[in-house]
Amino acid sequence: MPDRRRRGSHGQQPGYGQQPGYGGGYGPPQPGYGPPQPGYGPQPGYGPGPGPGYGGPPPQQPYGGYSSYGPDQVTDVDTSWALMAYLGQFLVGAIAPAIVYVVKKRSSRFLAFHATQALNVAVAAMIVAVPFFLLGAFVSDMFFAPWLAYVAVVMFFLVKAGQAVTRAERYTIPTFVAWPLLKLR
Fold this sequence. Notes:
Elements: H1 76-87, H2 89-92, H3 95-104, H4 109-138, H5 144-166
Helix pairs in contact: 1-3, 1-4, 1-5, 3-4, 4-5
């Protein structure tokens, strides 16, 4: 006996849940959702289009090479780089703040401040470390404990400055830890 079931558009049987007669398509178009409910106007923030300046030429950088952001407008990129200048010292010493200082010191005043301060901390720590290591190696091990205390103080202020960076604040590390060898211009 021949199969008398209705076939879809290419001689195939209709798929699961498919209505016969529509040939494998998507079915009839669905009706709209109707008129909007009363009391619901347009959503705030979805205005007619972008504001002025959209699609225009980029703004020029102000004198001095710093970005057009004000002192209270710190970007996430700035905080990431500044944080790397401080916390990178735990991994690679003075290399991290030196890289941030050389590469990013002109991108914003916030970043220039923190990169300069982090590099001052790193250079001061290296200068302090040399005599402690020499005295500890050739004279006595008693010089090792004061050096460890100084390292602990440096680490404390690096973490404290890193916390200020995450809040987009300027935190000045005391000068006995961050000798002002490099200055902001």
